[in-house]
Specification:
Layout (H helix, E strand, L loop, with lengths): L2 H19 L18 H4 L1 H7 L4 E3 L2 E3 L7 H12 L6 H7 L4 H12 L15 H12 L11 H4 L18 H12 L10 H8 L2 H13 L26
The structure holds heme C (2 copies).
């Protein structure tokens, strides 16, 4: 770990100490000095140290954007880290002592943030890879029972209420990491885990192409997740169903 990175992680842990101090739970550390203004914005600085306002890449990987994702999705992820259905040391540790009520408050806070998305990036895909990625996103591969990504993640890929995340403007490395984690069982969502099904039906080449294509796209400021689905999803999802 570089000194700079150690500094960043260290700052995150310091922020975490402050955060725990401000937590509305019994066993936490004593309250922080009154000089620290006790607002949600202040407390959530501990998260922004790693995640940045709009997501952030660092030498050790990626810190996904959390602003503007559906509240239900964010709550599910915070609980997944707390209960070990997702694995990341810092996140598992941070969530360990937080109550459901507090996780809902955090999820609501980040869901309501309206921050610009980064500009579109070059994807570096060949024409054939780009076609394959776009086909998966908009049409799926019915011959292999892979539904279109948009059929669940929303026509604009900006997510869908109550708990389906948007997929654009996330780093390709992060997307590849998540799809890989579902394929190996490292990441789990509530059963039936439709995303595990989708991820297992994709080839490694498709994962790379679709991740790079998604990460190259952007969204206009103010884009919100789509409304609740009115029709059943193409696969049953234990999380993210209306
Ligand atoms: C030390 C760095 C660090 C800190 C501090 C941190 N996170 Fe994270 N967080 C991560 C990393 C890395 C991931 C991605 C883990 C993975 O690969 O699954 C993540 C993932 C997440 C996700 C899942 C995002 C998604 O799209 O599925 C949420 C939600 C989240 N963090 C919320 C928070 C909140 C809220 C806080 C503050 C209370 C916080 N994080 C503090 C590093 C951090
Ligand atoms: C049947 C519905 C469905 C389809 C089709 C679907 N997804 Fe998902 N996806 C979900 C659900 C539900 C989640 C949230 C799971 C959770 O709570 O952890 C999710 C989450 C994700 C995530 C994690 C995002 C993050 O911020 O961590 C990625 C990446 C993803 N999907 C990629 C895809 C891709 C690529 C496709 C198309 C090939 C696709 N999905 C098709 C239901 C679907």
């Amino acid at each position: 770990m570089s000194a700079k990175l150690a500094g960043i992680v260290g700052a995150g842990v310091l922020g975490l100490v402050g955060l725990v101090g401000l937590l509305p739970v019994g066993r936490a550390a004593p309250p922080a000095p009154a000089a620290v203004e006790d607002t949600m914005a202040q407390r959530m600085q501990a998260c922004v140290v790693c995640h940045g306002q709009e997501g952030r890449a660092a030498r050790d990987g990626y810190y996904p954007r959390i602003a503007g994702k559906p509240e239900g999705y964010l709550f599910n992820q915070l609980a997944n880290f707390r209960e070990g259905r997702r694995h990341n040391r810092a996140m598992n540790h941070l969530m360990q002592r937080m109550s459901d009520d507090y996780l809902h408050a955090i999820a609501r806070w980040f869901a309501e943030l309206d921050l610009p998305y980064p500009p579109a990036q070059a994807h570096g895909l060949s024409a054939a890879q780009q076609r394959a990625a776009q086909r998966l996103v908009f049409e799926g591969a019915p011959e292999r029972r892979i539904p279109a990504c948009v059929s669940c993640h929303g026509a604009a890929m900006a997510g869908r209420l109550p708990a389906m995340p948007g997929l654009l403007a996330l780093p390709a490395d992060y997307l590849i990491g998540q799809l890989g984690a579902w394929r190996t069982g490292q990441r789990k969502a509530a059963a039936p885990d439709c995303m595990a099904e989708v991820a297992r039906r994709l080839t490694a080449e498709e994962v790379g192409a679709v991740a790079r294509w998604l990460s190259s796209q952007t969204l206009p400021l103010g884009t919100k997740p789509a409304a609740h689905a009115t029709e059943p999803l193409p696969l049953r999802c234990g999380s993210g169903e209306p």
